[in-house]
Fold:
Amino acid sequence: MLRSSHTRIRKYLALGLLLPAAFAGVACGDGNEDGSGSPPPDYAQALEGSPASLANLHRQSNQLLGGGKPAFEERLAKLNGFPSVVNVWASWCGPCRAEFPHFQQAGADLGRKVAFIGVDSDDDADAAATFLDSNPVPYPSYSDPDKEIATALGATLGFPATAFFDSEGNQTHIRHGPYATEAELKADIRRFAIDGESG
Structure:
């Protein structure tokens, strides 16, 4: 009887040690943190008929562009007339990877009226390119190894960060931290980019 009781205690102790580890694995997003578990939307079909300025972005989908802050600012200026969403990310950043599927879907759903741009900041170019290969987005990202673009946007509290611009090119908001859901991201796009509220 005593041996049976000790056996049960050992089982409960083992279970007590294993369950927190299992929950920790789920919380950290093991195995699907990069969003590669599901295919991206059909961007060609979703974005067909986009206005010329936005179609130019789509033609550079998934590319890492050089030129730094001057090239990025020139691109933003050319998008005048369209609300813009700028996502600052890095391939080594777990929360950035976790929110990427939300940007994939939002880019497909809203990319005919909203400009999306990525900023790959403080990152290794090869690692970033590898990440994008398995997590394609319908817009380009500007390489920002020295964080000049991120700093100019106000993304100084870490990554990810998302900046919103109204159709006149005014920055209306900077969001620090990841988006937990696609709905949450789209709500901010409507509020800060499309409607142009400041926040």
Notes: DSSP finds eight helices and six strands in the chain.
